[in-house]
Amino acid sequence: MHAKKTRDRKKFFLEMSDKIISEMETESKALRDYLRTIGVLSEEEYQQRNLIDLKAREEIDNLKVCLFFHTIDMANFPL
């Protein structure tokens, strides 16, 4: 029973983390679009920041794969 609870907590943690990250990415993109529209952010800066976000998303996806396929101590993530 303990193992199932741990798996459920891990799944919940990953799902909630993904939801929060997606919301933050959407908000960041909207703010970046606004800054570009009003001329505070140049097109080059806009593209650079989008590339940084893309790399960060790839790192997050890689981390999720590692967490999914490897056992982690969910005691470090109390819910």
Overview of the molecule:
- The chain has 79 residues and is mostly helical.
- The protein contains two helices and no strands.
- It has helices at 2-37, 43-69.
- The longest helix has 36 residues, at 2-37.
- It is elongated.
Please tell me the overall pLDDT: 85
| DSSP helix fraction | over 70%
Number of strands: 0
In terms of per-residue confidence, which ranges show pLDDT below 50 for 5 or more consecutive residues?
none
In one word, what is the shape?
A: elongated
| Main sheet makeup | none
Quote the beta fraction: under 5%
C-alpha-based Rg, rounded: 17 Å
Short note summarizing the structure:
The chain is mainly α and 79 residues long.
List the keywords.
mainly alpha, 2 helices
What does the secondary structure layout of this molecule look like, with pairings?
Blueprint: H1 2-37, H2 43-69
Helix pairs in contact: 1-2
